[in-house]
Amino acid sequence: MSPSRVLSRQFKSAAHGLSIAAWLLGLSACASVPTKVIQATAMTLPPAWAAAPDQVAGAGLELQWWARFNDRVLTGLVTSALQANHSIEGALGALRQALALRDVAAAGLRPGLNVSGQRSAGTGAGNRFAATLDASWELDLFGATHSALAVSQATVRASAATLAAVQVSIAAEVGLAYLTLRGAQAQLTIAQENLISQQESRQISQWRTHAGVASELEVEQARAAAEQAASQMPGLQTTIRQASHALAVLSGEPPTTLLNLLTAAAPVPRATGTLALTIPADTLRRRPDVRAAEQQVLASTARVTQADAARAPSFRLSGNIGLQALGLGGLGGSASRVGALLASWPLWDGGAGLAQVKAQQAALDQASSHYRATVLSALREVEDALVALEGDQLRLLRLEQVTEAAGNAKRMAMQRYRSGLVDFQNVLVTQRVHLSSENSLANASTDLGADHVRLYKALGGGWQASPDYFDLSKP
To answer: Cβ neighbours of residue 207 under 8 Å, at least 6 residues apart?
Structure first.
């Protein structure tokens, strides 16, 4: 048969296939179920934050909030954790997997090409060789493959946002653990100084007893106060060691790695400067967990479209070129070409296709509810952090005045006791008040730093988008 006749027959076969395809398209248009796309991201947001201390103003947020504490150790710990934390490495691996699966979905839109070869024993003088080149392409007329790619793209963005959320969380955990450690060290220093003071009071009471101007009651009271001060130290030392263990593990190291680095006591760091606070809408755009929830809604929407498209006919263009010869050198001498348009349509599946659409719509409803809950939780976290920050700032100012007054009272009571003007009970009362105020001041300073960390976390600070994470221009 001449090549012109072969091409003519292939053209007629393809035309006949296209006419069948047009007929199937008409039928599927009647059977298609429209998909309801839920606008899950439409929510009414407040125009401003209800609670905002005087130190909070402006617009914008520093990415590396830990630098505002002016503490080199804290900066080094956060930097190490963001580089070596295993949870971050796991989230990064999930992102790489999502990128690879996106490329798999994108490959479904392109034609496929396979080559195969065969050698068979001939009945004559030699063997027969055959080579076949197969090409196929599935036409995405109803958008099933494009919907699968949209799912993969949304999954990539969600994975990137999840990675950012892990970074935000790890940075905040390091900050809180470090503040806990420094706060416990501050309280341990207070307890040690108080123990020295109590031992001095005990020594004075013993001298007064030997001189006959005091009783053994004062000695026992002084001894009890000293032992009470000493009893606080083991618990504080335990807190310091445990916080050091937590910081080491957050940095991807064994628990005891940072003991030498963190043994020396240092003041509780305080955030400096004015915090720049964005409006609620901008904050939600920045928070990675909100981004991830939004992308999950988009992925669920695409899955509904994909499930609906799966109920429609599918079409595949295929063709092959076959070469046969008695020797390898003769494979290029003759060829046979075949082309076809293959169509399939699930006319009856017992309702499985429609049930799958309903299942994906229910999953979309769940993703929508999760998104709304995430937004509300984000708004609450910021408002709670702002309220706590405002309250602890006022508490710290009051406690500084209380501690100053209690220290003065303690010194005056001790001077009068040495002079015999007051009894030992006055000394004990002023010592307890001063110790309590110092501990409260240390706790308030730690809480204030923790408030800043929680506010930075609630605002979505502590991460920076990498172009590689969100670049979907090359599927």
So the answer is: none
Instruction: Place domain 36-110+154-311+354-470 in its CATH homologous superfamily.
Output: Outer membrane efflux proteins (OEP) (1.20.1600.10)
Q: For the chain, first and last CA: distance in Å?
A: 44
Sign of CA dihedral 193, 198, 199, 200: positive
Query: Could you tell me which of 288, 218, 300 has the C-alpha nearest to residue 462?
Result: 288
131 Cβ neighbours under 8 A, 6+ residues apart: 115, 116, 117, 118, 322, 323, 331
Q: Span 150-167, mean pLDDT?
A: 84
What's the rounded mean pLDDT across residues 286-302? Answer: 86
Phi, psi of 127 (to 5 degrees): -90, 160
> What sign does the dihedral 288-290-294-296 (CA atoms) show?
positive
DSSP letters, 317-382, are EEEEEEEEESSGGGTTS--EEEEEEEEE--S--TTHHHHHHHHHHHHHHHHHHHHHHHHHHHHHHH
pLDDT at 223: 81
Which of 163-173 are b and which e, b meaning 16 or more Cβ less than 10 Å from the residue's Cβ? bbbbbbbbbbb
Tens digit of pLDDT for each residue in 177-203? 999 999 999 999 988 888 887 787 777
Dist CA 123 CA 66 (whole Å): 82
| 204 contact partners, CB below 8 Å, separation of at least 6 | 222, 417, 418
User: Tens digit of pLDDT for each residue in 57-86?
Assistant: 444 455 688 988 999 999 999 999 998 889
Instruction: Tell me the C-alpha distance between 323 and 457, whole Å.
Output: 66
Task: Retrieve residue 393's tokens.
Answer: 């700032």
The residue type of 58 is G
Encode pLDDT of 326-369 as tens digits: 444 544 555 555 555 555 666 666 777 788 788 888 888 888 88
Write the burial class of residue 29 (CB in 10 Å: 0-12 exposed, 13-18 middle, 19+ buried): exposed
- Taking alpha carbons only, the member of 291, 38, 41 closest to residue 156 is 291
Confidence tier at 220 by pLDDT (50, 70, 90): confident
Distance CA 188, CA 182 (A): 10
- C-alpha 106/C-alpha 317 separation (Å) is 18
Residues 6+ apart with CB under 8 A from 413: 422, 426, 427, 429, 430, 431
Q: CA 5, CA 199: separation in Å to the nearest integer?
A: 113
- 39 against 11, higher pLDDT: 39
Name the residue ranges covered by the structural domains of the chain.
Answer: 36-110+154-311+354-470
Which residue did the predictor score with more confidence, 26 or 280? 280
User: Band of the pLDDT at 250, cuts 50, 70, 90?
Assistant: very high
Q: In which band, very low, low, confident or very high, does the pLDDT at 122 lie, cut at 50, 70 and 90?
A: low
